[in-house]
Amino acid sequence: MPTPPLSICHLTIHHMNVLRTVTFKLKLTNQDQCTLLDTMRAYTNAFSASATWGFENESWNKVDNHNATYKLVRQNNPELPSSLVQGARDCACEALKAVKCKSLPERKTFAAMRYNQRVITVNLIRGIATIASTKGRIKTTFKIPDCYQDYLTWKIKSSTISYDKRSKMFYLHVSLEHPDPELTQDLYFPSFDFHIHLLGYKPN
After folding, report:
1. 187 sits in which H/E element
2. CA 116 to chain centre
3. Backbone phi, then psi, for 195, in 5-degree steps?
4. Nearest to residue 122, comparing CAs of 26, 36, 201, 44?
């Protein structure tokens, strides 16, 4: 059999999108701060209910947890928005999965809360956010540092609200995603064009 001809194969590799998390200090009234603290308490109650059920039933399945706990959590925390109840449940199930249900996950009362796009609106250009709470939407503003200017047009993936007990300040952490055209790589390498010889084969 003759040596197959050598050719050059071209392969373009597209890397994953670039992810960044930026943090802003929120400007809130005293009343809004109290409301967010109340929201964190309710969020922690929802987390604990889901974590307890999952631990006792040795399950981190989110659907099963939802069916077993959602109604009771809503009854015990009627002012907590539905999406935050679901977010707390998801966090509890993820914590259960991490420990394989070998121990009961615990959450500090004023630990950070995860927000999806249904319960928070963030405008990075104007430095404005509206945040769901136990008393409706809270409107807040934040200063945008110069070092964040390049990220203002990136796509927002998720948001988290945290509280610093020492400074008594709330912070907004925004996860951003952006495709980076510089992370495209062209590879060239030798390849052989193989020809298949079917010996003894005769078409019908």
Report:
1. strand 184-192
2. 8
3. -110, 130
4. 26
In which region does residue 150 sit, left (phi positive, over 0), alpha (psi from -120 to 50) or beta (all else)?
Answer: alpha
Output the average pLDDT for the chain.
Answer: 86
Q: Name the least confident of 17-21, 113-117, 195-199.
A: 195-199
The per-residue pLDDT for range 88-121, each reduced to its tens digit, is: 999 999 999 999 999 999 999 999 999 988 999 9
Q: If DSSP codes are grouped into helix, strand and coil, which group holds residue 36?
A: helix
The CA radius of gyration of the chain, in Å to the nearest whole number, is 26
CB 175 within 8 A of CB 158: yes
**Span 40-97, pLDDT tens digits:** 999 999 999 999 999 999 999 999 999 999 999 999 999 999 999 999 999 999 999 9
Helix axes of 62-76 and 82-98: crossing angle, nearest 10 degrees: 130
**How is residue 119 written in tokens?**
């319960």
Residue type, 197: H
Indicate yes or no: pTM above 0.90.
Answer: no
- Do residues 163 and 131 lie in contact, with contact meaning Cβ atoms separated by under 8 Å? no
Check if the beta carbon of residue 159 is closer than 8 Å to that of residue 2.
no
